[in-house]
Amino acid sequence: MEYQSNGPTSSDNRLHFLDYWRILRLRKGVIFVNFIFVVLVATFVTYLLPKTYKSTVRMDVKKDTASDIELLGGTPQGPDFDPFFILTQFERLQSAEVLYPVIEKMNLGRVWGARYGIGEFTPQKTKLLLEKRIDPTQVRNTSIIALTVYSEDKKEAAEIANTIAKVYAETREQNRITQVRKGIAKMREKLGEASNSVVQAQADVQRVREELKFDVIMETPGKVALALDSERVRALEMLNIEMNAGLTSKKTQLEQLKSLSPKVLGNALMTVLPNEINLPRLYEQLATAQQELVAKGKELGPKNPEIERMTKVILEIQLQIEGRVKGIMSGLEAEAKALQSGYDNRMTQLDKAREQNRTAAENGQRYMDVQKKLERLERIRDTIELKIESEEIDADIGRTAAVEVIDPAEPAIRPAKPKVALNIALGVVLGAVMGIGMAFFIEYLDTSVKTIDDVEHTLQAPVLAVIPQNVGVLMNEDPDTPHAEPYRVLRTNILFTNKKPNANTITVVSGGAGEGKSTTVLNLATIFAQNGNRVLLVDSDLRRPSLHKRLDIENSPGLTDYLLGQGKLEDVIQKTDQADLDLLPSGKLPSSAMGILNSQQMRDFVKEVQSRYDFILLDSPPLMGVSDATVLTSMVDLTLLVIQYRKYPQSLAVRSRQMIEKVGGTLLGIVLNNINVSSDASYYYYSGYHYHDNPSSSGSLNIDSKPRELKGKVDRQRGQDSSEEPDLKSKY
Q: Which of 3-12, 30-39, 471-480, 618-627 has the weakest average pLDDT?
């Protein structure tokens, strides 16, 4: 019969949380042992470790700032932020220049050597030990360094911390003073050079002054002289502009007057020269004479002497006017020439003044250059002198300390190491982790049968029943005991799984010894008998028979006697305390009867009892022990393979099935035996439900405990009497 598993495929066989929980429950002993062991070891080691105390000194550490007055003047600048400054100080705290003086002051080499019983440590060795005992840290967002020192002696830890802080502060201060002294010496060299430069610059100023013949009586003679020359040039330029304008106006006026006719010129001159009095008077006399001539000309004739005289007067006046006009024009021309001459002279003076101003500017600039150089060198010299005085004062009276101890170290009240609570807590965590890890590791190494899916997937055969632990012989217990329910499930599954109507011989085998096949076959026979079936139980394990001991029956006569022809069947079959259940013990096994199961007599025996009993159940030796088990599987109708939970590797079960198939046996199904239901909750629904059932219903069919492929069949059988079995033989 080829079994087709209806369970989940291998792709769905992923571990679920409940599978992990099952492993933890199953391996709780391993977990507990590992847990207790690790916790005890952690506790023991914690209390064995020497006590270590720690003391912490807190220091405010600042950078070495520059002087309050900078070399070139200006306001003092604070130190720039340096993110690596504190880290640098960590290294300096652990440097040789700090630790070696501490070792020498406290004589740590001799003290620690005596403590460890090895004489005296070398300074190098002591320094290495001291480095391991100190731990500098920074207080967040501050310039405070907390230096922690560990030691077996609480007072020593505090003393070392305070000594390191003191030596570190002294070292910083000494380094600062040394740097200041070196700086002062260097500045004195620079001061000498600056003084020499000032003397040379003063000589240059004096020489330039003498060359340029400056009579310097003002603070900035060059600049003042340059300002005066510029004013004079500007005044000359303004005067020349005015003169040029007057000259141009005069020339324009003269040209316009010259272009006029003589008659118009006189009137124009009177307009141009309002202060001229002679010319207007002449024109007035001319006008009067002309009027008088006109008046008398009407009375007197042209030849009249008076008329002639008056005509002469008019001519004389006209000549005077003409002469006056010429004189005025000559005067204007002379004035224009004079203006031109004055303008030319002024231009000559302006050019000369400009040349003088340019020369004065060049000379003034030369003088100002040497003067500025002198002033700059004097400032540098004075600044260096002031800096030297400031540094000397600081070196003498000291500045604000770059290292300030704000919290001195004090002896600790309680040890810092070992941390008992922390170590035990870590031991608890580590113990739990190791225990769980060991549980899963053992589970990984365990290749035995663990679940129904393992069996059905590996063997391709159905699991007919799951038998819990601590199930004894049912014949010795009450018929309503919950222990009988798994075997009732097994009986029901056998009946509904069997496809051969006349198959009633069943052998119960196992791959290895001690898997519970004898108990299984005995209790299964009891269940069949309690349901009214006529059952024969045959102890076929001739080498190690056990059924007669369990039923308290003599082992002889038995099967070997019948097969050797030493007795009839009725003589060797014995009654048991259970109605309808007979036992055929194995009998004595003489050395001459080895291999008797593989005989024609055994085959005839099987055929004989098949007609007399409803069911014949045979107990057999392990398949891997002797050949008797495979012989029996080939003779009987059906074979049940008993596999004990977590005892043998799965390969043994696979090999057992292969052996059954090789001899032509029919494997009806698998019985999983000795299941620890309390620790493996995955089997609860297979074998745990009936423990809470009403005892009166113990003989009823437990549908929920069936494999899935049987549930439909069982549902169709509801309402039928449990004692009504298909195709049962007539009773013997």
A: 3-12
Whether residue 78 has pLDDT greater than 60: no
Q: DSSP secondary structure string, 596-646?
A: TTSSHHHHHHHHHHHTT-SEEEEE---TTT-SHHHHHHHHSSEEEEEEETT
Q: What residue segments make up the domains of the chain, in order of their start?
A: 10-46+419-437, 53-182+400-407, 221-396, 452-695
Q: Report pLDDT digits (tens) over 122-132.
A: 999 999 999 99
Q: What is the Cα–Cα distance from 469 to 674, expressed in whole angstroms?
A: 4
- Which overall architecture, per CATH, does domain 53-182+400-407 show? 2-Layer Sandwich (3.30)
Other Cβ atoms closer than 10 A to 357: 21
Quickly count helices (H) and strands (E) in the chain. 23, 12
| Side chain identity, residue 136 | P
Torsion angle defined by CA atoms of residues 409, 414, 415 and 418, in that order, rounded to the nearest 10 degrees: -140
CA nearest neighbour of 499 among 662, 710, 703? 710
SS (H, E, C) 355-420: HHHHHHHHHHHHHHHHHHHHHHHHHHHHHHHHHHHHHHHHHHHCCCCCEEEEECCCCCCCCCECCH
Q: Which pair of tokens denotes residue 394?
A: 């600081």
Class of CATH domain 452-695 = alpha beta
